[in-house]
Design brief:
With about 160 residues, the protein is an all-alpha fold. The chain has 4 helices and no strands.
């Protein structure tokens, strides 16, 4: 009986380190797998950030190339005047076209006997508000933000450290 216990004890003591090593290895592999997954995820995010940076850089370069023609005066005053007139001219044409359409709709609405509320809804609908807001934001938004930031910082009191 003691011999059997000795054999069993010897067997368990020789196999126990292998079993512990097996569990340790299994835990290490699970940890390594989790770390590899995290590294892969970090690489994907890093790649997306790098791609977004490159796209932004390419967009900036494209805009720079598109507007390079207007970087400076050409030397011919008539060409420079015509170049500076193109955008405002197109804007004015589109504004007058919109004004003509809205005026026509208003006149037809009045002749049809629509009430003031119906006329306002007809002429000043959601798409018109959106277009008007976009145009005003394009032309005057930068100036308003610049004016707001200049005046808000100018109105702030200057705090100086107390002198001893």
């Amino acid at each position: 009986m003691i011999a059997l216990l000795g054999i069993l004890g010897g067997f368990v003591s020789s196999v126990l380190p292998s079993i512990i090593t097996l569990f340790t290895r299994k835990n290490d592999q699970a940890h390594e797998r989790a770390m590899a997954d995290k590294q892969l995820e970090a690489a994907k995010v890093g790649g997306q950030i790098a791609l977004a940076t490159e796209v932004a850089r390419a967009d900036t370069e494209q805009q720079r190339e598109l507007y390079r023609y207007a970087a400076g005066p050409s030397g011919n005053s008539r060409v420079d005047a015509l170049t500076s007139l193109v955008r405002p001219y197109i804007t004015m044409i589109m504004f007058h076209l919109w004004l003509g359409i809205e005026t026509t709709v208003l006149i037809v609405g009045i002749r049809s006997g629509l009430s003031l509320g119906e006329l306002v809804q007809l002429v000043w609908d959601e798409p018109t508000k959106a277009i008007f807001g976009a145009i005003m934001g394009f032309w005057f938004g930068n100036r308003a933000v610049k004016h707001f930031t200049d005046t808000s910082y100018a109105a702030m009191p200057v705090i100086r450290p107390a002198q001893k």
